[in-house]
Fold this protein.
Amino acid sequence: MTLLARSFAAIACAFALAFNGSVRADEAPPSLGVTLAPQWDGEEVIALGVSMLITAPELDEGEALLRIPLMLVGTPTAALAADEFEAHDDFGALVLTAQDEDPDASGIYRRYLVGRPTAGDVRVSYAAPPREVDAQTRGGPLFDMRRQENGLIGAGVYFFAVPPGNAPWTITLDWDLSAMPEGARGVWSLGEGRQQTIAPANLLNFSFYAAGLLSSESEDGEGNFSIYWFEDPPFNVNALARQTRALYDYMARFFDDEGAPYRIFIRYNVHPGGGGTALARSFMVGYDPQGETTAGGMQQLLAHEMAHNWPRLSGGAHAETAWYTEGTAEFYSLVLLLRSGQMDLDGFISAINRRAANYYTNPHLALSNIEAGALFWSDPRAQRLPYGRGLLYLISVDAQLREATGGAVSLDDIVVGIFQAQRDGEAVGLEGWVERIGEHLGEQAQAGFDAMAAGETITPPGNAFAPCLRVVPAEFATFELGFDDFRLGQVTSLDEASAAYEAGAREGDIIHAMTPPLRVARDDPEAAITLDLERDGERFEISFDPRGESLPGWKWERVEGVDESACGI
């Protein structure tokens, strides 16, 4: 999995409704008790047992007791059949029937309907096996549940069937680790061991879980920030944890949200590719046998995903607001890395220019936000567009605000102000965004927003990141791998017009190695790619240049003679 996987993070965050609503103390939401029990056969986890006590759902015949995804943004789930559930209420056994919903833009859901009216509380139990994966498994969002050495790890969307709807519940989650080896731990996105919160039931779907012989930093998992892993990864995870904790604290102070919980889960992929996915107050990152994660490395990946905790717009379709969700995560992951001292100015320039290159060479550059959104789940290049478009637009707005107010107002004031208003219960959407910047930019605010949303190419103002940096014209070479870059263990969806095909790659070839790794090849305009392939039992190598035509754009360069302390970024 490459940078593409990150385009799903904001989708998942949008589904996770916890921590954003309020419940009156006298409303007493009904209880939803959950116990998770990993099943161990002496060598590995073979299934995850789930038991639920649903307080008085009061359902009529044919109404849905539970709901689960079958497929979510291209990632399969446990897809449980109705007869895999045992359900009982005060009158005895409940027979459930499955009803699949019509597919939507994100995937397919299944409802489990009761065969008669329910009486009193309902108890439900079932077991879900981990997903079987191998070197040819296609990458994607880290939604599935997988075995790891001495445990399992994954997201709730894979195995959790929960009561439908957005009504709040008093959720209590426990672990039964009696079948696991001594020393096993159970962790949810909200914390380790028994946890309780008030939230919609789908928080259980859009959270991460890990159980087994886990390592962590902090060592005991206490506090509001922890990182968990099984096998020791091929990088210094303790140093990464210290750096990430410092950055998270810095970000939380910036958004005036100190003390909010956050947990990071790290898992090993047997297939090539890394990447990650953000869910409720948590993030999971994957690494492959070579230790690869994603373009920009682990630090920038984690910074981007942590930034997703705060900026978002209320309402609107994902296609209409993805520029803000992804653009602010791109902007503040890099700006706050720089301000906190975890990235130097040269690294910042390199990171910004890499993102500018991805934007200006995107073949869907001229599509509107709505048009690009219609392609999100079929074309990964459309998924990338909100990252660069949002970033370049926000950089432009920041420069315009600073110029219009003599430096008194910046993008920081607008974005933090929106977050704080939403935390106080105000809904701030696209109109609210334009209104807030319009207080300083006048009619330019609406015109600039409309141009961005319509797909007009963004030219950043010359004073963007001045006086330390300046904007200059640039030429960027396009990059086309030529086949599906979610499945780097096998050549699939091969473009017969590509350089990879011309060099000898064919549909179905097994990929034993790619040199250099994909993230390195994307960043190096001089790099050729060598593939170690297998076809019909024979191994051979091919090499090709993945760079195509050069396209015009803009980039940043350092202004000589300006001290870094004067940058004001």
User: Anything to note?
Assistant: The chain has three domains: 3-307, 318-475+554-566, 481-545. The two ends are 31 Å apart (CA to CA).
